[in-house]
Structures are given as structure tokens and as C-alpha cells.
Specification:
The structure holds 2 protein chains of 2 kinds.
Chain A lengths: L1 H5 L6 H47 L1 H4 L16 H10 L22 H14 L8 H4 L6 H11 L1 H4 L6 E2 L5 E2 L7 H10 L14 H14 L5 E2 L10 H24 L9
Helix pairs in contact in A: 2-5, 4-5, 4-9, 7-10, 9-10
Chain B lengths: L42 H4 L1 H31 L5 E4 L3 E4 H27 L17 H17 L6 H13 L2 H6 L18 E7 L16 E6 L9 H8 L1 E5 L8 H6 L4 E5 L11 E3 L4 E3 L6 E3 L5 E4 L8 E2 L1 E3 L5 E4 L15
Antiparallel strand pairs in B: 1-2, 3-4, 3-13, 4-5, 5-6, 6-11, 7-8, 8-9, 9-10, 12-13
Classes of the chains: A mainly alpha, B alpha+beta.
Chain lengths: 270, 352
């Protein structure tokens, strides 16, 4: 001890103390830091849920009830999961203008993505449900487009038309067009079954199946989609094709008939 | 071109004697035939320069047709089938189809347009009158024909050679039978095929997406799934014929929402299995609304309430969609408890 004390004024003493202090700090940080971080994450998560709860109380509770239990104006949100919230709110369907309309249409989103995440976290905390899918799940890598077409025609085409142009249902309800719908939202819709659409859970339509379907839509239903047979006329099938035939086909024939039978210019005025 | 540009000597006489020989109505004959109005000549009839222009226009149309035909052949040879081009406002379309359609269209239209222009401007447009004549032939012609016929009949000895006459009538009577016999190919009658499907007791319900048998836990409330009977494979011969009758849609409805007792009993914990074939004219029907539990047929808007035994609530369908009775087997898989108890799809004569 005396020895150490005697050397405390050595020129290198300060350096040794500094190194020791640094080692201690680093060691302590290494021991405690992960715990702190996890704690911080948990706090952040509960903060997110808290924020979401506040947003919910202002924007959603009037129809869906103060605890998401649902009212006569809106269904229960317990167990619908984060995917349903992300779909409904980021496509602008929710908050709906009225609960009396046949169905909530697509419109510009009211909330930012951060707020949507908070809302989703709050709703997910009410009961277990499907989570928001990741890019890996809905991206085009590893998708089988032909298989996707088969699956789409079997499961989706009855309402959404064979290339996803949409179609009418009963009493003013309709299946919307899938043109320019983000792959993430298509995935979430299949997973959660928004509004009157039935759901296609992973147990009956696997993750790979969903990926295939999204890839098929990306192929047939964009601005760049190829239509080797000529003008697609909206891809609506016989209705638009028949209308085109009647108006332009028969119209052209009538115009030619009028020209054939019209009086030619005469040499003198009569 | 107006009449002012035409030299005076080229103009026809003001009153054409061949036409416009108008009978004027008088007291004796108040409804006299006024005859044809005076013929008016076209510019091309009186002006050789205009006629030349018309000739050139017709020749131009025919030449255009020739060029388009050459273009058609050239496109067919030169353009690969899979080439896609962007053409406003048609979009991304097949280059070959577009080129063939346009060139063939011009080739045909230009021939027709040339012919019409030729007829309208250069061929004679004089009005002609051709009086009707009696339809009846003259008496002497009629008696000659009858005499010829009698003589022919006598010379053929048809009346005398009875054997020939009888066998000829026999042959002529039997010949049409060949056509009648061919009608047999429209048969045979379907017998009981319309009344039975591949479903039967113990057949598992196989998911058409994954080709795996379904468990009740796979189907969540609000979901829609299509199933086929176990053992029916898509690459099998006759798959389409069988699935056309056996196609099945599975929905899961909250048991509290099911309105009909039998519907409830024939399902399993709210999982209901219905035929996918519309009972009107047999369209595949699966436009399912999970909140109202209605299924809509895209062909004629027949609507069925799946929560109430698929009762028809709108449209031309005559009866409810047949429900398949299902249960769960020992291994926990969904199975059919028998075939549909009535024929699926549209009504037919003997359906009853």
C-alpha cells in the first residue's frame, strides 16, 4: 500500500488510472447495457401503445368503442391484429366518413405512417391477430407467377375480375380494382378480410401462395402490363368489348353505307 | 367545283327529252304519273379533268391496297410473335397482331373504297326503267312442257315396271334413316350422373390451394376456402367433369349468426359447406360477402343467404344451393358425411 502510495506522483500514474477507469466503465457497460436497452425497448413499446391509445380515443373510439369492443356503428377490433389496422388506415378507408355507406372507399390517408404504427400497436395489444407483413413476405423474389394466376382465378377472380379490375357486389358494395394497390396492402387484405371480403388465412392460402398472387397481379395489372392480343378495353371482358363492337364496328358500317348512298356532286345546281 | 367553272358548251341541254317527259295532271286524270325527275349530270360526266382526277383517286386506293398486302406479308415474315410495342392509346400490345390487323384492314378497305368511288363518280348513273312482264308462261309453252313430261314418264316405263318403282320408293324412303341413326350420338342419357357427385361418406375435404386435407382450425371466422373431394387430382383425366359437379365452398360463420337449425347441424362449429354451382344455369358462384353471409352469382345476380340454408333472397335461381353435410373424423380432419342430398346445379327435366 505504501509502495503504491509512494508512486502516486509518478508521471505515468494518471495514465494507469485513466486506463483502469476506462476498463471499468467499458466492463460495466458491457454487463448492464443489454438489459438497459431491452428495458428501453419495452418502454418505447409501451409508449407507442400509449400514443396509439390516445390517437384511438380521438379518431376511432366513437364507432369502435372506447376499448375496441365495437358498437352498433363499428365492429369489434379485438383480435383483428396490426395488419388490419395498417390496411384500413393507410389506404384511407378508416376513419370512415359514415357508418351508413355500403362500404368505406379508398381515400387519402389521414394519419402518418408513424401514427398508423402506433394505432396498430395499440390494437394489437388488445388481442392477438395477424402482424403487418414484411417486404420479404410480399416481395416478388421467389414467386411463381403462373401458379399465382391459377390461385388468383380460383380464389379472387370471382369478385375482383380475372386481371384484378374489380367488380360489383350486392346493394352498392363492390370489389375494388387492384390496380396500383401496394403489394403490402394486397397481402394484408388477403390475411385479414377487410369489410365484406372473406379472409384467406395462411392455413388455407399459404405465405408462398399469397406471394405468388401478388406477383401475378404485378404482371397483369400495371401500366406496363402487356396485352399481346391488342387493345385490352379495360380488361372487363365481354361488356366493354361488345360496347366497342356496337359503337365503333356498327357505327363504321353505317358511316360507309351513308357514303355509298350519298348524292354525288352535280354539274349544275338544281 | 361548282357549275361556274364548267365551259358553257359542255353543259347538257337544260331539258333532257329522255327524262322529265312530265305528264301534267288535268281534270280528267288528277293523279297522273309525274315520271322521273330530269337527270342531272355529275361533274365527271361533263368535265374530263374531273373524271381524270376520279380515275387517279380510284387507282390510288387500289395501289394502297396492293402496298398494304405487301406490308401484311412483310410483317408476317419480319416481326417476331413475342415482340411487344407501346402504341398510344392502345398500350403495350403485340407488334405482329397490330401490324397484321392494320395492313389487312387497309388492303380490304381500300379495294372496297376504290370500287365505291369508281361507281359513284365514273360508272354510268343514268336512271333506267324496266317494265314488269307477266309471270305466267304462254299457253303453248305450258302445253309443250306437259307433253314432254307425259312422254318422259311413258318412255321410262315407270308405270309398267312395278318392281323398279317399288324398290326405288323403298330406297328413297330408307336413305334419310342414316341421318336419324347419327342422332344417337347425342346420347346416351345421363342416367343418374346428374344426381351424384364424387362426394361420399368419409371423403376428406382437400384444400384446392395447398392440396392438403383441411382441419377445422384452418378455417377462421369470415374465411372462404374451396375444397375438392379426396382422391380427385387436377392432372387426372375427367377432372373438369367431376369438379364441375363436386366444387365446394367452405365458409365459417359465427354459430350465433346462423339462422337455420338444419344448416347448423349439417356444418361443424359454424363451418358450412355448400355447392359452388349456381342452381339457375350453373355458373360458378363464390362472390361471398363475409359480413352479410350473402353469395352473389355473377351471371344473373341470384343471391343466396349462406347463414340461412343458402336460401334464394334475390334473382332468378329456383332453389337453394345444396349443402354438404360435414363432420370431423378420428384424426381431426374435416370429412363429408355423404353425397349432396339433392342434385347440384341447374334444374333439369326429370329433377322433380
Amino acid at each position: 500500500m505504501k509502495k503504491l502510495s509512494a508512486r502516486r506522483r509518478h508521471p505515468l500514474a494518471a495514465l494507469v488510472v485513466l486506463l483502469l477507469a476506462l476498463a471499468c466503465t467499458g466492463g460495466l457497460y458491457a454487463v448492464f447495457a443489454p438489459a438497459d436497452k431491452a428495458q428501453a425497448d419495452e418502454t418505447a413499446q409501451s409508449l407507442t401503445i400509449e400514443e396509439g391509445k390516445k390517437l384511438y380515443a380521438v379518431g376511432c373510439a366513437s364507432c369502435h368503442g372506447t376499448g375496441g369492443q365495437g358498437t352498433s356503428d363499428g365492429p369489434s377490433l379485438v383480435g383483428v391484429g396490426a395488419a388490419a389496422v395498417d390496411f384500413q388506415v393507410s389506404t384511407g378507408r378508416m376513419p370512415a366518413a359514415t357508418s351508413q355507406a355500403a362500404q368505406a372507399p379508398v381515400k387519402p390517408a389521414v394519419y402518418t405512417q408513424a401514427e398508423i404504427d402506433q394505432l396498430a400497436a395499440y390494437i394489437a395489444s388488445l388481442g392477438a391477430g395477424p402482424a403487418v407483413p414484411t417486404e420479404e413476405q410480399y416481395g416478388p423474389q421467389g414467386a411463381d407467377i403462373a401458379k399465382g394466376g391459377e390461385l388468383f382465378r380460383n380464389n379472387c377472380a370471382q369478385c375482383h375480375n380475372f386481371t384484378g379490375k374489380g367488380g360489383a357486389l350486392t346493394h352498392g358494395k363492390y370489389a375494388p380494382t387492384l390496380e396500383d394497390v401496394a403489394p403490402k396492402h394486397i397481402y394484408e387484405a388477403m390475411l385479414t378480410g377487410p369489410q365484406n371480403m372473406p379472409s384467406f388465412p395462411d392455413s388455407t392460402l399459404s405465405e408462398q401462395n399469397k406471394k405468388d398472387i401478388i406477383a401475378y397481379l404485378g404482371e397483369v395489372n400495371t401500366d406496363q402490363s402487356e396485352s399481346p392480343g391488342g387493345m385490352s378495353l379495360g380488361g372487363l371482358g365481354p361488356v366493354s368489348e361488345g360496347l366497342f363492337g356496337w359503337i365503333f364496328g356498327l357505327g363504321g358500317l353505317i358511316a360507309v353505307a351513308v357514303w355509298v348512298a350519298a348524292r354525288t356532286a352535280k354539274a349544275k345546281k338544281s | 367545283m361548282s357549275s361556274q367553272d364548267i365551259p358553257e358548251e359542255n353543259l347538257p341541254a337544260a331539258q333532257d327529252t329522255a327524262h322529265g317527259a312530265v305528264k301534267v295532271a288535268d281534270e280528267k286524270n288528277p293523279f297522273a304519273d309525274p315520271g322521273l325527275p330530269p337527270h342531272e349530270h355529275r361533274i365527271q360526266d361533263v368535265d374530263e379533268r374531273a373524271a381524270k382526277r376520279s380515275e387517279r383517286a380510284v387507282a390510288l386506293l387500289f395501289t394502297l391496297s396492293m402496298l398494304a398486302t405487301v406490308g401484311f406479308i412483310a410483317s408476317f415474315v419480319a416481326i417476331p410473335v413475342e415482340k411487344i410495342v407501346y402504341i398510344f392509346p392502345l398500350g403495350h400490345i403485340g407488334a405482329l397482331n397490330f401490324a397484321l390487323g392494320v395492313t389487312l384492314g387497309i388492303a380490304l378497305f381500300a379495294i372496297g373504297a376504290g370500287a365505291v368511288h369508281w361507281a359513284r363518280t365514273l360508272m354510268s348513273d343514268e336512271e333506267l326503267t324496266d317494265e314488269r312482264h307477266a309471270i305466267e308462261a304462254p299457253q303453248e309453252l305450258r302445253s309443250k312442257v306437259m307433253d314432254d313430261f307425259r312422254q318422259g314418264a311413258k318412255e321410262s316405263q315407270l308405270g309398267r315396271r312395278k318392281l323398279i318403282r317399288t324398290t326405288m320408293f323403298g330406297a328413297l324412303t330408307l336413305v334419310p334413316l342414316s341421318g336419324v341413326v347419327l342422332l344417337r350420338e347425342l346420347g346416351p342419357l345421363p342416367e343418374t350422373k346428374l344426381r351424384h357427385t364424387l362426394w361420399g361418406k368419409g371423403k376428406l375435404l382437400v384444400n384446392m390451394n395447398t392440396n392438403e386435407p383441411l382441419r377445422p382450425s384452418d378455417l377462421i371466422t369470415g374465411s372462404l376456402t374451396f375444397a375438392k373431394p379426396e382422391g380427385l387430382e387436377e392432372d387426372e383425366h375427367g377432372f373438369q367433369n367431376e369438379i364441375a359437379k363436386a366444387a365446394l365452398m367452405l365458409v365459417r360463420i359465427k354459430p350465433d349468426d346462423i339462422k337455420d337449425k338444419r344448416t347448423m347441424e349439417w356444418g361443424h362449429e359454424g363451418i358450412l359447406a355448400y355447392s359452388k354451382i349456381c342452381t339457375h344455369v350453373g355458373c360458378p358462384i363464390s362472390l361471398y360477402e363475409q359480413q352479410t353471409h350473402h353469395v352473389l352469382c355473377p351471371c344473373h345476380q341470384s343471391t343466396f343467404d349462406l347463414a340461412d340454408g343458402a336460401r334464394v333472397i334475390f334473382g332468378p335461381a329456383g332453389h337453394a344451393l345444396p349443402q354438404l353435410r360435414i363432420g370431423v373424423n378420428d384424426e381431426g380432419y374435416l370429412e363429408a358425411l355423404g353425397d349432396f342430398d339433392e342434385p347440384v346445379g341447374p334444374a333439369f327435366w326429370e329433377r322433380g
